[in-house]
Amino acid sequence: MTFKDQILEGIPDQLPQPKPFDASINHAPKRKAILSKAEEKLALKNALRYFDKKHHKTLLSEFKNELDTYGRIYMYRFRPDYKMFARPINEYPAQSQQAAAIMLMIQNNLDYAVAQHPHELITYGGNGAVFSNWAQYRLTMKYLAQMTDEQTLTMYSGHPMGLFPSHKNAPRVVVTNGMMIPNYSKPDDWEKFNALGVTQYGQMTAGSYMYIGPQGIVHGTTITVLNGFRKINKEPKGHLFVTSGLGGMSGAQPKAGNIAGCITVCAEVNPKITQVRLDQGWIDEKITDLDQLVKRVIQAKAEKETVSIAYLGNIVDVWETFDKHNLHIDLGSDQTSLHNPWAGGYYPVGITFEEANTMMANQPDLFKEKVQETLRRHAEAINKHTAKGTYFFDYGNAFLLEASRAGADIMADNGIDFKYPSYVQDIMGPMCFDYGFGPFRWVCASGKPEDLAKTDAIACQVLEEIKQHSPEEIQQQMSDNIQWIKGAQQNKLVVGSQARILYADAEGRMKIAEAFNQAIANGEIDTVILGRDHHDVSGTDSPYRETSNIYDGSRFTADMAIHNVIGDSFRGATWVSIHNGGGVGWGEVINGGFGMVLDGSIEASKRLKQMLFWDVNNGISRRSWARNDEAIFAIKRAMDIEPNLKVTLPNLVDDDLLEQL
């Protein structure tokens, strides 16, 4: 069968041959056994409902074995035979170009070069899934191939509920992931309901089909590292940034360090993903011995090198060893997947990777105990370095949150706040999000590198034109973005689809998108798919990350993210998504995202202006109402530009008046 035939087939009528387990692929760890015997039967019953009754007897024992062996039913037998990657848009069988664009993005999220655990349909973060099983993938792709521009596909946590009549201006797909009743949103609830096959963790951009590989966070990480060094009044060159995590999003750190120009040491316990990052050129060197690592860093400091070094081992050993050798760390952070601490997001020190994986599945209580011991040691080592002048920031991965829950010494004197700021509080919030700057991205649907190069040039020209009349308050942001896009090609950031990202405000996003749409109309480039990371100005309500610099008491509310996705849906988004748990953990955050197809039409031009303006200014208005000075400036400027925008502004209260109480 051809690729198109297999897509149109959906779930095959005849069972494909079972597939052998491929040990060369990076696989998800075994999930802990959490279901009762009655729940195991329910999970099997739920899985079998995708298939004709004639296959149930054969599949029952197979799915039971998967549940016992891996803790989940992935339906490996139904993994497609074709290679998984983002094909040019015209290679997809589709009645709707918008649907074909979504198919392209789904396959990009599952590309072996992009996905963390491709056979388990997990893109990044240890549990950030596009689908829960391969039947869902097959059925979704078939629906998208059948869809017209008068239908909308509804996705319930990876499950395609079906095609419903709508209209051409409606989203083609509406995605929800993990939208639990609040009292059922604890980590073990995810384990249970995911094992039952009724919900999934979509991370931020995995379950909304908008992940573009580590590049998706390289730019934001580069800005963070650059401004971290600016904050401590040091040039990056010859100075040391220490962090951990090379899987998924965290794999961006060493590349960002190289672009910023510092020495980066990034620890990772997984040998396969470490080798992948080395092969991809996202790290320069791999070291497995701590003494050798110390010597190499001393050399790099003396010669003021720009170099990224992966240490294959536990980050706690690095912090403790560098302390023992009095090796000064200038910037420190952590980007392990601590939103997922008990299921492979963070590994205990002192035992091997393989031993930890076995303990995780078979002795989950002991594993949790070891992780919390490690977090206490990790925090203690960081405290020793910060006492010597290291600037440490939380990277929004729930490191400080989980360390506090483990009883680590990371609380401030008031017993409420953490000793160390979130990078959003100190850097990205006031410098970027409050002004409306966030991770705008696009994918060239043709798959042609020359189209990407043309879009880079278009974006650069637009930004340079905007910079000429930008206020002083955002000149630094504009300069950083222009420098970024000029170096994007030489930094070899593409993994998977021909994609790009830069930080832009509403004006930048709209003007860049309009320039793309015009270039498509002129036949200069092919279709472009717009999107963004949910880690943005308006998309995410996350009290320990995206909205950690909201100080009016509303950071634990999720109105903004909900309004964001509703507003995007009727202003022209091609698809919209709303998720529980992305980035910092199940039950800790709500985030919304979108995708938008540009086809060169007048209708696309109207949609992009309506939607992108709202998508950014919704968040600025919320930040302004929280009394953030930068956001007040930004929303006033937006109202001057757009007379139909009328936003409630806060009346500031004199603190001296309150002190009289």
Keywords:
single chain; 661 residues; alpha/beta; 9-stranded mixed β-sheet; 6-stranded parallel β-sheet; 22 helices
**What is the gyration radius calculated from CA atoms?**
24 Å
Counted by DSSP, the helix tally is: 22
Assembly of the depicted chains? single chain
Approximate shape: globular
Class by SSE composition: alpha/beta
Give the SSE map.
Elements: H1 3-9, H2 37-48, H3 56-70, H4 97-110, E1 122-124, E2 128-129, H5 134-146, E3 151-156, E4 159-165, E5 173-177, H6 187-195, H7 215-231, E6 240-244, H8 252-260, E7 263-268, H9 271-280, E8 285-287, H10 290-302, E9 307-312, H11 315-324, E10 331-332, H12 353-362, H13 364-386, E11 391-392, H14 399-405, H15 423-431, E12 438-444, H16 449-467, H17 475-487, E13 499-504, H18 506-521, E14 528-532, E15 540-541, H19 559-570, E16 575-580, E17 590-598, H20 602-625, H21 629-641, H22 655-659
Parallel strand pairs: 3-5, 5-16, 6-7, 6-10, 7-9, 8-9, 10-11
Antiparallel strand pairs: 1-2, 3-4, 12-13, 12-14, 14-17, 15-17, 16-17
Helix pairs in contact: 2-3, 7-8, 11-13, 12-13, 13-14, 16-17, 16-18, 18-20, 19-20, 20-21
Structure in a nutshell:
The protein is of the alpha/beta class and 661 residues long. The chain has helices at residues 3-9, 37-48, 56-70, 97-110, 134-146, 187-195, 215-231, 252-260, 271-280, 290-302, 315-324, 353-362, 364-386, 399-405, 423-431, 449-467, 475-487, 506-521, 559-570, 602-625, 629-641, 655-659, and strands spanning 122-124, 128-129, 151-156, 159-165, 173-177, 240-244, 263-268, 285-287, 307-312, 331-332, 391-392, 438-444, 499-504, 528-532, 540-541, 575-580, 590-598.
